[in-house]
């Protein structure tokens, strides 16, 4: 398991007032908070966690430790938080694959590592349509070029993912099924290592969030062929959507959101919810996301809970349709 830890600085901002010192829940937080990212550094969840961790540290007055616990496409980190004590000291910044991974376990008749209802949504942070990237020196200038080559060489062109049935894998399988092509799946522990190998030419295609790719596109190292959204991405306005290109059912979004173990005390939930609201207004957080090409897409707890339920149902249906791969 790859694991990396980062401690967010406190800065000089005073802590939120604590209303009582009588109950343990009311004293939250009285020690460091760990925010688990279930992927290696360099991906969308990591992009979301680090500026949020810094902002939360200033707001609640205790360090927020960003802990990369990668493995099994995100299942290892997701499960660790799902099984944790609901005390507000172990949180999860995860992606839309949250609902897909237990369904994938069921497809292969394995016990699910966790269930979505073991986790309580706190706030959505980012929500981007996935984009399709290839090396700048690749021969394909369009999706049509890639499809024609893949049909001529079925199962040969390697594409990366964040792990089997992770967000990046599901997006590519949707496209491949719609285009009636077969490519070679090369799974990684997360988007960060996959991007490294895309840049070196070890793989030839990758679906990922705009914010993880923009710097490499700007540097002339990668080319974006299409996006999985229902509108063009502001960071890449010249890039068409798959829907524009005639793939009407190829639509996928990679969102990042904060969760806690189900059963978090109400007063801790309120403090965390309020702190997240303020963190998402922090100019440094906004600037970091915008400069990466992934504008903030905040949803508070109630709205995010409804969003997760609807998106999970849609992704589970897609996973069942794709089946074993």
UniProtKB/TrEMBL annotation:
Keyword Signal: yes
Pfam family, one: TctC
InterPro entries linked to this entry: BUG, Bug_dom1
Key words, A-Z: Receptor, Signal
Signal peptide (residue range): 1-25
Annotated family: Belongs to the UPF0065 (bug) family.
Protein name: Tripartite tricarboxylate transporter family receptor
Organism listed in the record: Variibacter gotjawalensis
């Amino acid at each position: 398991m790859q694991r990396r830890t980062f401690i967010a600085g406190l800065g000089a901002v005073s802590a939120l007032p604590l209303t009582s010192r009588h109950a343990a829940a009311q004293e939250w937080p009285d020690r460091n908070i760990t925010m688990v990212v279930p992927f290696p550094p360099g991906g969308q969840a990591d992009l979301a966690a680090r500026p949020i961790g810094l902002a939360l540290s200033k707001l609640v007055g205790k360090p927020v430790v960003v802990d990369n616990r990668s493995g099994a496409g995100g299942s290892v980190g997701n499960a660790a938080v799902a099984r944790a004590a609901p005390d507000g000291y172990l949180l999860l910044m995860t992606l839309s694959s949250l609902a897909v991974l237990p369904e994938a376990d069921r497809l292969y008749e394995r016990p699910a590592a966790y269930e979505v209802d073991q986790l309580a949504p706190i706030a959505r942070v980012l929500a981007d349509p996935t984009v399709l990237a290839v090396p700048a020196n690749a021969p394909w200038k369009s999706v049509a070029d890639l499809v024609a080559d893949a049909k001529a060489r079925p199962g040969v062109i390697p594409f990366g993912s964040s792990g089997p049935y992770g967000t990046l894998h599901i997006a590519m399988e949707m496209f491949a099924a719609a285009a009636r092509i077969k490519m070679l799946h090369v799974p990684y522990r997360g988007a960060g290592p996959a991007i490294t190998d895309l840049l070196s030419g070890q793989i030839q295609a990758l679906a990922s969030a705009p914010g993880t790719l923009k710097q490499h596109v700007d540097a002339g190292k990668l080319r974006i062929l299409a996006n999985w959204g229902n509108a063009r991405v502001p960071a890449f306005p010249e890039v068409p959507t798959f829907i524009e290109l005639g793939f009407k059912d190829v639509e996928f979004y990679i969102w990042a959101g904060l969760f806690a173990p189900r059963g978090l005390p109400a007063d801790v939930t309120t403090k965390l919810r309020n702190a997240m609201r303020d963190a998402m207004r922090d100019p440094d957080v906004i600037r970091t996301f915008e400069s990466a090409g992934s504008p903030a897409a905040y949803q508070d707890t109630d709205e995010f809970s409804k969003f997760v339920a609807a998106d999970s149902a849609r992704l589970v249906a897609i996973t069942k349709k794709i089946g074993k791969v």
